[in-house]
Amino acid sequence: MGKLARKVALVGAGTSKFGQTFPLRRIPEHWTDAWLNAVATVDNGIEPKDIEACYVGNYSADLFNHQGHLGPMISSLVGLNPKPAPRFEGACASSGIAMRQALITIASGLMDVICVCGIEVMTEVPTVGVTDALATASDVTFEYTAGATFPGLYAAIASAHMHKYGTTHEDLMRVAIKNHINGKENPYAQMQRSIKDLMERKIAKVKGAGGEVPDWKDEFDYLKSPSNPPIAWPLHLFDCSLVTDGAACLFLASEDVAKKFTDTPIWITGTGQGSAAIAMHDRTTLTALEATVEASRQAYQMSGRGPKDMQIAEVHDCFTIAEICAMEDLGFYEKGKAVEAIKNKDTYRDGAKPINTSGGLKSKGHPVGATGAAQAVEIFKQMRGIAERDRQMKFDVEIAMTHNLGGSGGTCVVQIYEK
Amino acid sequence: MGKLARKVALVGAGTSKFGQTFPLRRIPEHWTDAWLNAVATVDNGIEPKDIEACYVGNYSADLFNHQGHLGPMISSLVGLNPKPAPRFEGACASSGIAMRQALITIASGLMDVICVCGIEVMTEVPTVGVTDALATASDVTFEYTAGATFPGLYAAIASAHMHKYGTTHEDLMRVAIKNHINGKENPYAQMQRSIKDLMERKIAKVKGAGGEVPDWKDEFDYLKSPSNPPIAWPLHLFDCSLVTDGAACLFLASEDVAKKFTDTPIWITGTGQGSAAIAMHDRTTLTALEATVEASRQAYQMSGRGPKDMQIAEVHDCFTIAEICAMEDLGFYEKGKAVEAIKNKDTYRDGAKPINTSGGLKSKGHPVGATGAAQAVEIFKQMRGIAERDRQMKFDVEIAMTHNLGGSGGTCVVQIYEK
Fold first, then answer.
1. I need a labelling partner for B17 at 20 to 30 A (CA). Which of B110, B168, B215, B395 fits?
2. Distance CA B242, CA B240 (A)
3. Among residues 143-172 of chain B, which lie with CB inside 8 Å of chain A?
4. Of B310, B314, B415, which is closest to residue B355 (Cα–Cα)?
């Protein structure tokens, strides 16, 4: 495993407004919105003629939209034909992979500028169809047919983590509470409400209806109430990320041309991808995700940086437990020690290690094939100082990371960004 | 669009036996067979520890097998975890894309050895499910919902070609006759019978049953009989490729390590990928495929070679008309002139421009996501002098090409190979 032959930068990035938008807004609307929002961030402008390929990350338009062969459809919509338009898939890490392959392609010398699309429009099928489509990212022969869907698989991880490290249901809640606070500051997020907001709204509603007002002191009481029902114990409703339609667009450029687009490129100095058995029963442990360990090892090695250097990170919180595992498997904290940091509010925006300033998959939403690229959009905005509302870091972010997971950890892609 | 930073070679290649094999042989069996057959072609041996990533080309295990997230599943089966295992998709050009991205990744300096898997197991669903899954590679909003499936789309191309250039139904038959002759010499092909064999078998059957023996002078008479019914005029049964289960495996290595595996690497000196609107009504012409023109332009430019230099080629004959279009769009012949060459038997194994010596998709079979890699397997065997039975070229093949198409021409990947 070597080094990349030349440097590659992110010179523009944007997402569509995430949400449940079918039938009004489908693949074309989400993608063209993401494109336009990304174009608006390129200081000196960018046009289709500047771009040599369109790399598309998508989990399964096959199952969500009954549309395969998405590459040329996506590239047509922004005038990029007849340029190459491959599609990349690795479950929920699909656009992390698309971005990684774009980076590699530019480093190879073949191209100078590539546009990356991450997209998933999930609400064209009913909820049972969403659950089904997602479950095909697990082992269909042994896991899905035995009745396991993703909340169940991550519940097994959470149970094992609780058993081994004493992690509690309250620790999981803390992750959700923090991410919803961040999502409130993100105008592109699906849920822009803190859990406290939701609690107060519920209290007002009950009061308005003349009912008995619940005796909730804080968010924890609310999250222990029937408003937060169990989905697959120990995971409750607010431990799960959202079903979301959305797209993200990134513009990557070689060191040779990056300055044409901007004076402040964000360099992608590390990339790594790891794999593990997609069936959890084929792994050696439930409490650590080997693919994350491997992907981050590669990315740290390439960049010459370590976990302590990461000032902020977007990690793959498809479930609250996944954020805790990521914090440990990325080496930010020792195994079993992440919850202490969470209790200390280290991962809040004003903490020692801010995580998921975008709101994360938990609150920003999780259009699965768009998620990896959308994480890069948040890092781009934070590093360029253009994050909306009150979530912009108060210090100059010089080094950051994205961590994008597929399935129950069968695939992981990690990227490191530097100014 | 530049050059690759370093040279990349094919050092091993093999396929599984193609056929309709469900339920006996599914994804794991096809893939491990292809792997073992490819390993057997690596002169000095190759082991999982030598390989840095597994690049998987697959069209839609989502729809054919209800299994997404195929990358880590494929890599697990051959002991490659925790290495990267991304999946690549571009309809029937999926493993052409996987191979191209592996080539680019090695050229980038990031890795030295990558294993490419192309796979599709299509017969787990009934025929209507196959037609449906394939149709999602067209424009689902406008084409498929209007009733068009792939035979219909290629029938429109064939009709237009007939109208513009005077191409006839007999010309289409000639493509099928030649490819079935070649497939007879390929022990990995799904149909190892010439059309003459099929005709004689039919005659013998009718005779045996005491029926009236058909007055067929040659294959053309047979192909004009009810044994070759129309599917979508002018395309008949024998104008269509097959529904197939199969896998292909390729080992790619950088110039720095290729000699470790073999003294006779096959260099991949050119690669190109093009796109076009996936809906045919959005294109400027039906009789030429812009994606092929663009992909070959890039590959010729990179390799410094031209159409005349290609001694043999595997082209994407998903329908007989597609082989004719490819011969023209790749620049082997002027538009409208390919049929003359076909009449002259130029594309036979002993002709001036042998095409689809493997039997092509028409006779070898078309496991869609495996096809691009399987084309490379044939070229590898021909260039190494190890093609089975009587189909090995009688001269030393020094330059060759693969042409892999997705959908009705929305995606095309071309690769050029040299000794």
1. B395
2. 7
3. none
4. B314
At position B234, the amino acid (one-letter code) is P
Residue B135 forms part of a structural domain: no
Active-site residue, B92 included: yes
pLDDT digits 0-9 by tens, A231-271: 999 999 999 999 999 999 999 999 999 999 999 999 999 99
Q: How far is A337 from chain B (nearest CA, A)?
A: 25
Which of A8, A144, A145, A278 to mutate to test binding with chain B, by most B CBs within 10 Å of its CB?
A278
Q: Residue B24's CB: how many other CB atoms inside 10 A? A: 8
Burial class of residue B48 in the structure, from the number of CB atoms within 10 Å of its CB (0-12 exposed, 13-18 middle, 19+ buried) = middle
Q: Is the pLDDT of residue B2 over 80?
A: no
Kindly state the DSSP code that residue B152 receives in the 8-state scheme: H
Determine the residue among B55, B89, B368 to mutate to test chain A binding: the one whose Cβ has the most chain A Cβ atoms within 10 Å: B89
Residue span of the structural domain in which B385 resides: 8-126+242-418
pLDDT at B1: 47
Asked, for residue A171, whether it belongs to a domain, the answer is no
CB A189 within 8 A of CB A364: yes
End-to-end CA distance of chain B: 24
What is the average pLDDT across A191-215? 96
Q: Which of A295, A108, A415 is nearest to B84 (CA)?
A: A295
| Interatomic CA distance for residues B90 and B86, integer angstroms | 14
Token pair, residue A260, equals: 């044409």
Within a domain: residue A210?
no
Active-site annotation holds for B325: no
What is the average per-residue pLDDT within B154-162? 98
Which percentage of chain A shows pLDDT scores above 70? 100
First to last CA, chain A: 24
Looking at the 3D structure of chain A, how many domains does it have?
Answer: 1
Q: Would residue B151 count as lying in a domain?
A: no
pLDDT for B121 beyond 60: yes
Contact A190, A364 (CB under 8 A): yes
Residues of A noted as catalytic: 92, 366
Torsion over CA of B34, B37, B42 and B48, rounded to 10 degrees? 50
- Residue B277, chain A, CB below 8 Å: the answer is yes
From CA B264, how far away is CA B271, in angstroms rounded? 20
pLDDT over 60 (residue A69): yes
Q: Is the pLDDT of residue A1 over 60?
A: no
Residue A168: its pLDDT value, please? 98
Tokens of B331: 């620049």
Looking at CA atoms only, how far is residue B401 from chain A in angstroms? 18
**Percentage of residues of chain B with pLDDT beyond 90:** 99
